[in-house]
Automatic annotation (TrEMBL):
Record Pfam families: SpoU_methylase
Any GO BP: methylation
GO function terms (MF aspect): methyltransferase activity
Protein name, per record: RNA methyltransferase
Organism: Blautia stercoris
Domain annotation tRNA/rRNA methyltransferase SpoU type: ranges: 123-269
Lineage: Bacteria, Bacillati, Bacillota, Clostridia, Lachnospirales
Gene3D superfamilies reported in the protein's UniProt record: 3.40.1280.10
Keyword vocabulary terms for this entry: Methyltransferase, Transferase
CDD domains: SpoU-like_rRNA-MTase
Coiled-coil annotated residue ranges, if any: none
Family annotation (InterPro entries): Alpha/beta_knot_MTases, Ribosomal_eL30-like_sf, rRNA_Methyltransferase, SpoU_MeTrfase, tRNA_m1G_MTases_N
Length: 280
């Protein structure tokens, strides 16, 4: 049975991961080994456990200790469970817990781009998407709409940041992903060249004079396609667009000139991801 520990002192060093360390500090906690992340809500925690991540401790609101939580705890009976009332936990963490539960977990080593993209036919590439909410929403769409993998440039928000993983509903633990290693591969030139060496055609999502429509037959018929999405506001860098094989636009009406990157990703994944399953 898990040790259940009621919080009586905010200064417990075991609570640092929840109360006093920011996302960056957690990421670098065990350097040179992989760091720590915080998973929020039972569904996200369960998907992380199913993906092979190991828990360090649980933090849970008292009223949430029940059948669902105990089922999760029972898989790791020696892992401590810290608990308190909602207001105490909110004071400790600085935010209200979604479904009253957090879990500190050990990160796994990142795989290489080649490993993540092995056998993939449709992948998403995120260039400098810095908002964790957008990253999480893109992963949720990628999981639902037939993306085989997600690649991120080094400036992107980390998919394992608490908000990103929560917004994704835990799909960051189901869709293979990794970062381009900036020590080995430059972006965009080196990254796009690597994708081409693996057989991918690249499609930059951008509104330019030479854009093709997202339902272009040649585009949809590509055997292996990487859909490249840009940062919030500015979109893709001009050099990235010029380096890609296609520039692709989503037709819009009523004078709307662009969509939020998460919304655009859902449209692109639906059209181009479904093309894979339709045999196009």
């Amino acid at each position: 049975m898990n040790p259940i520990i009621e919080i009586t002192n905010f200064e417990f060093p075991e609570l640092d991961v929840y109360a006093r360390l920011n996302e960056s500090q957690l990421l670098h906690f065990n350097e040179p080994n992989p760091g720590i992340f915080i998973a929020e809500s039972p569904k996200v925690i369960e998907r992380a456990l199913n993906a092979g991540y190991h828990p360090i401790s649980f933090l849970i609101e008292k009223k949430e200790i029940g059948a669902q939580a105990e089922e999760i705890f029972s898989r790791w009976e020696s892992v401590p469970v810290y608990t308190a009332e909602f207001e105490v936990l909110k004071q400790l963490t600085g935010f209200g817990l979604t479904r009253g539960m957090l879990c500190a977990m050990e990160r796994l080593s990142l795989k290489s781009v080649e490993e993540v993209c092995k056998n993939a036919r449709r992948i998403a590439v995120l260039e400098n998407v810095v908002n964790p909410t957008n990253v999480g929403a893109i992963f949720r769409s990628a999981a639902a709409l037939n993306m085989d993998a997600v690649l991120l440039t080094p400036a992107c928000s980390d998919p394992l940041y608490r908000r990103a993983a929560r917004v994704s509903m835990g799909t960051v633990f189901q869709v293979p992903w990794t970062f381009f290693d900036k020590k080995k591969v430059s972006w965009p030139d080196g990254g796009i060249q690597l994708l081409k060496e693996m057989g991918f055609q690249t499609a930059a999502m951008a509104l330019t004079d030479d854009s093709v429509s997202i339902d272009d037959k040649n585009l949809m018929a590509e055997e292996k396609l990487a859909i490249v999405l840009g940062t919030e506001g500015e979109g893709l860098a001009k050099h990235t667009i010029a380096t890609c094989d296609y520039t692709v636009k989503i037709p819009m009406m009523h004078g709307v000139d662009s969509l939020n990157v998460a919304a655009a990703s859902a449209v692109a994944f639906w059209q181009l991801g479904m093309a894979k399953t339709d045999g196009c």
